[in-house]
Amino acid sequence: MTSAYSDPAPVTVRVPAKVNLELLVGPARDDGFHTLSTVYQAVSLHDDVTVALDDDWGCSVHGPYADVVPSGASNLALRAARLLADETAIDTPVHVSIVKSIPVAGGMAGGSADAAATLVACDRLWSLGLSTEELEEYAAELGSDVPFLIRGGTAMGSGRGERLAPVLARGSYHWVFAISDIGLSTPEVYAECDALRGDTPVPDPVPNPELMSALRTGDPHVLARQLTNDLQPAAISLRPELGELLKSGLAFGALGGVVSGSGPTVAFLVEDVEAAIDLTVALTATGAAREVRKAVGPVHGAHVIPARVD
Ligand SMILES: C[C@@](CO)(OP(=O)(O)O)[C@H](O)COP(=O)(O)OP(=O)(O)OC[C@H]1O[C@@H](n2ccc(N)nc2=O)[C@H](O)[C@@H]1O
Ligand SMILES: Nc1ncnc2c1ncn2[C@@H]1O[C@H](COP(=O)(O)OP(=O)(O)O)[C@@H](O)[C@H]1O
Fold first, then answer.
1. Mean of the per-residue pLDDT values of the chain
2. What torsion, rounded to 10 degrees, do the Cα atoms 211, 217, 223, 226 define?
3. Same domain, 188 and 141
4. Which residue in 31, 101, 110, 274 has a CA-CA distance of 20 to 30 Å to 64?
């Protein structure tokens, strides 16, 4: 006799990386986090995260970065699944399988992206029916930029980066990312930023209206002039070669360049897809980056895709 009930099929969610178009870092708060004003853009470097019911909680990581991502309890995606289960009184464990293509510890929020994808996937697998707002609240418990990876597109982040507001952005932008061999630790880069500032008083960050205007034009030449990152001097202080990489990209024709978040990935904004190909070839030839990848932004946040058939 067949049962009327069958286990739900695994759910796969595709999730983008991010770049900060503007990252203004204010003073350190009592809880150790820094007050931020940032503008995130989701870009088309993706991880795919699949959740499936299993006898026990587990995680596996696949792809070129598998060796440098923990697959145990510290994996942020597995932590996301367990947090959501605890908060919603679910007691059916899942296995989380990550096909990782977002650079690790690169300032592109790869771990946060996997956590965001897992929340969206588990919501579907467990038929929780949570709203985007509810998922973003759980996301904020996992990390400052996890909520943005659920939302995607282009958005402003305040607080420690977790409070999101929409931004009116026109057009589609072409990016080239120069990815380093070895990652940088986000807390170390914030600490270096504090050390470089010393005793200089730091005001609360105020969003730059010229960036908002630039995003409304849809013109990459205009946007390129507004790219800003207060963590860039800290990232360059820890990795002086990033300064040279930025200069090379601009010399090879990028409209603008900026360290992505806490680095060490460097993001170059270019005019169009041909310029992206040219810059990718030129930067690859220098050997100054482990890998050079093209992407477009903005793209959607974490979203369910049809299951892979292997
Ligand atoms: C720098 C940014 C820019 O978007 O991204 P990444 O470059 O790491 O991707 C973010 O602020 C990173 O966000 P996320 O990676 O989620 O950081 P969290 O897990 O919340 O915090 C990790 C650590 O970073 C520092 N931190 C983070 C956010 C913040 N507003 N102030 C901080 O000082 C703290 O030392 C904290 O313990
Ligand atoms: N699912 C995950 N993907 C990537 N890194 C993870 C994950 N879970 C935990 N980590 C850890 O988080 C650290 C930060 O990774 P990541 O989010 O890629 O960088 P960044 O904060 O620079 O954007 C890594 O060094 C890794 O050890």
1. 96
2. -20
3. no
4. 274
pLDDT at 5 over 70: no
Among 47, 114, 123, 145, the one annotated catalytic: 145
- Its sign, for the CA torsion 144, 52, 8, 110, is positive
Are both 27 and 102 inside the same structural domain? yes
**How close is the Cα of 183 to the center of ligand 2, in Å?**
9
* 186, 230, 259, 262: residue to mutate for ligand 1 pocket, most atoms within 8 A of CB: 186
Examine the residue annotation and report whether 145 is marked as an active-site residue of this protein.
yes
Choose the final residue of a domain: 112, 138, 167.
167
Q: For residue 216, give its domain range.
A: 173-297
* CB neighbour burial string for 5-39, b if at least 16 within 10 angstroms, e if fewer: eeeeebbbbbbbbbbbbbbbbbebeeeeebbbbbb
This prediction has a pTM of 0.96
Question: Are 161 and 64 contained in the same domain?
Answer: yes
Instruction: Please check whether residues 75 and 199 belong to one and the same domain.
Output: no
pLDDT at 235: 98
Cβ(143) – ligand 1 distance below 6 Å: yes
Q: Is the pLDDT of residue 2 over 50?
A: no
161 in the same domain as 29 = yes
Its ipTM equals 0.98
